[in-house]
Amino acid sequence: MNKTPDFSSLRPERPLDERWELLKLRSLEADIYACFVPSEKPSSGPTLIVSHGAGEFKENYFEMARSLAKQGISCLLLDMHGHGQSGGKAYHVSMKEWVADLQAALDYLETRPDVDAKKMAAFGLSSGGTAILEAAVIDPRLRALIALDATVMNTLPWSITLTMASLSAVGYLKRWFTGNDLRISIVQMLEEVQLAADPEINARLKVDPGKLQAFANFPLPGASAAFFVNTIHRVSKISAATLIIWGEQDNLDPVSTAYKLHDALTCVKHVEVIEGNGHAGHLDRNRQRVFDLTGDWLLKHLA
């Protein structure tokens, strides 16, 4: 449930608008930091919970939140467990924890008089997409979903799969004996992977201090869920109207995954593949298209 908002330790890297609220929630005994961005329209429209990807933070979604606010959509941007300013083990990606974070956000939103509890939705990128899908499997309070290049199955090449699985096994042994995960650097992998299709944006992402710190201290098996999940086997239980958005040039999760996810869903669903975008579509050259599709989907299904 929600806690009293605490502003003292929050130092956003990007300026906030005056009406934005910085919050601190509780999830599995950890502090989860969030930013509530209210709609710029007087009517009670949809409210979107935003779950970032592995190694990310809520500030990456400020531009999207501003765009959606103009369409009459409020946003609650989260720093997920182990990321950004939130508590938890640094850079761990645990679906148990991340789903709990989303449910804590739902609990909090239900206490706000400016939020219609029947119009709550979630947006997630990559591992954040995994989390919102897993949450929707068990929590019907989510009425609509936008999955952006969501990780729903292992799509790594077999050689990398074998390497990461072996390192995870070593990590389990280290955790057994020391209580701590194995920490490795996957910065070189980041160098070889295209996160955004736009060369300038991709170059900036590769030197982003937050992402470099996360990838230089990648915990195994603590973050293995960033790669190894089987969410696609459970999504048939989702009832929320689900929009799947994918970058045509996504080299991490191929476009074929978008269609496999679409086929596995039994709810109201749709796929949009965006030309000129890579994996990080919310930051890429055609990010406004991502924002517009998200807003249109929410206003169509949660009017």
From TrEMBL:
Report domain Serine aminopeptidase S33 positions.
Answer: 47-285
Q: Which Pfam families match?
A: Hydrolase_4
Q: Specify the signal sequence span.
A: none
Kindly state which keywords UniProt assigns to this record, in alphabetical order.
Hydrolase
Q: Extract the InterPro entries matched here.
A: AB_hydrolase_fold, FrsA_esterase, Hydrolase_4
One function term, GO molecular function aspect: carboxylic ester hydrolase activity
- Whether Hydrolase counts among this entry's keywords is yes
Tagged with keyword Iron: no
Q: What is the protein's name according to its record?
A: Pimeloyl-ACP methyl ester carboxylesterase
Species this chain originates from: Prosthecobacter dejongeii
Task: Cite the source lineage.
Answer: Bacteria, Pseudomonadati, Verrucomicrobiota, Verrucomicrobiia, Verrucomicrobiales
